[in-house]
Amino acid sequence: MNIAISPITEADKEWVLQVVRNWGADFVISRGRKVFAVELDGFIATDDNGERVGLLTYEVTGDQCEIVTLDAFNKWSGIGTKLIQAIIDMLNRSSVKRLWLITTNDNTDAIRFYQKRGFTIAAVHVNAMEKSRELKPSIPLIGFYGIPIRDEIEFEMSLG
Ligand SMILES: CC(C)(COP(=O)(O)OP(=O)(O)OC[C@H]1O[C@@H](n2cnc3c(N)ncnc32)[C@H](O)[C@@H]1OP(=O)(O)O)[C@@H](O)C(=O)NCCC(=O)NCCS
C-alpha cells in the first residue's frame, strides 16, 4: 500500500471532526485544557484509492509544536511513521525547536511507537486524567489492554 501525505484542507474538516468525535467529544484534553483539533493545521494520509487512512493535527506556539492528535486507521502499516516524518520535515524548515505531545499511561503501543521514533519522556503528569475527566467526562476509566487511564505522559523531541 502506498501512503501519500498532504496538508489538511477545508474540504477535509468535516472528516477531521468525525475523527475527533470518535474520541468522545469535539475536543481533546491536553495539559488540562480543551483543544479543538478541527481548528488546527495538520496532515492527512491517503491510500492508493484516495481513502483517508490517517490524521495528525498540531499546534505551534512560539518555538514549540504540540502534536495534538495522531490516528492511523490501518495500524502497523507505516501510516503513523509517515505522518510523524511529515511534521518533522516541515518543522525542520521552521524556527520551532521542540516537538512535544501527550499520551496516556495505558497507550503502550503509542509509548513504544514514539520512543522508537526519537521521542523521549519529558514528564509524567501523575493522575492528570482526573482533571481531564472534569473537562471531558467521556474519557473512560479503563483504556487499552484493560489498563486504568490515570497519567499523562509527555514526550518531546528537540529540533534544529
Ligand atoms: C500509535 C499509532 C498512531 C501508530 O501508528 P501506526 O501507523 O500503527 O504505526 P506504524 O505502522 O508507522 O508503526 C508501528 C509499527 O508497525 C511496524 N510496521 C510499519 N510498517 C509495517 C509494514 N508494512 N508491515 C509490518 N509492520 C510494519 C513498524 O515497524 C512499527 O513497529 P515499531 O513501533 O516496533 O517500530 C497508531 O497505533 C494509532 O493510531 N493508535 C490509536 C490512536 C492513538 O493512540 N494515537 C496516539 C495518541 S497520542
In short:
The chain has 160 residues and is an alpha+beta fold. 24% of the residues lie in helices and 34% in strands.
Notes on the structure:
With 160 residues, the protein is an alpha+beta fold. The chain has a single domain, classed as Aminopeptidase (3-Layer(aba) Sandwich). It has four helices and nine strands. The protein has helices at 13-21, 79-91, 108-116, 128-135, and strands at 4-7, 28-30, 33-35, 41-46, 52-61, 64-72, 98-104, 120-125, 152-158. It has a seven-stranded mixed sheet with strand order 1-4-5-6-7-9-8, with helices on both faces. Strand 5 (52-61) and strand 6 form a beta hairpin. The longest helix is centred in the middle third of the chain and has 13 residues, at 79-91. It is globular. The mean pLDDT is 97. Bound molecules: coenzyme A. Residues 70-72, 75-81, 101, 103, 107, 109-110, 112-113, 116 line the site of coenzyme A (COA).
H and E order:
EHEEEEEHEHEHE
Distance between the termini: 31 Å
Ligands bound, unique: coenzyme A
Low-confidence stretches: none
Q: Compute the CA-based radius of gyration.
A: 15 Å
The CATH class label is Alpha Beta
Biggest pleated-sheet summary: 7 strands, mixed
**What structural class is derived from the secondary structure elements?**
alpha+beta
Would you give the CATH topology?
Aminopeptidase
CATH superfamily: Gcn5-related N-acetyltransferase (GNAT)
Mean pLDDT: 97
As for the number of domains, it is 1
The total count of helices amounts to 4
